[in-house]
Task: structure prediction
Amino acid sequence: MSRTAPRQTARVVQLRKGTTLEMVRLACPDAAQALMIAESFGSPVLDSDGIRDLHERMIVETAEALGEGLGERAMQIHLQRIVGAYVGSAHGAGQFYSRAVTEARDMTAKAANDLRDEDLDGPVGFDSAAQRKREFAADMGLQAHALRMAAEGAVAAYEQIVGERWKPFERPVEHPGQTLDRKAAELQMAALG
Result:
């Protein structure tokens, strides 16, 4: 009987996916939708390009100020974190906006039912609950759009400074709950082939 070397099992490292700018664009209103929201609800019209340009300039100027003190790799790591924070914030706002829109739609649909007394308009001068939900969703939409534009400016600055497209940092998923018994069982099973 010949002995063969034990088979090495390939270890798969799961990565925790980071939030991308594409995810932000899917979750947050674009400039056309933000304009439509502002006009429909009587809110101020946001200067989308101004927000984006300001954030791009701000990060470029910050990098220039830090240029003497940080090496190339340290600058890239620093900017990775800064841009990641902008993108993550915009994505969170976009998700919150999406939930607010869902609640507004649900409340508006309920208010359309003439048999529900609790959804009827309040006394003169007070908005209905459905109207308040729609206004809240509109406010969240404008906020999400503003944060999207800030994130887009930050991503553009990163590319300008570092010279490559920004992509989110993906860290390995940790398994703190993996016990010694589990590790021993895996080694024993690997030994069995």
Q: What stands out?
A: The chain has a mean pLDDT of 84. The two ends are 16 Å apart (CA to CA). The longest helix spans residues 72-111.
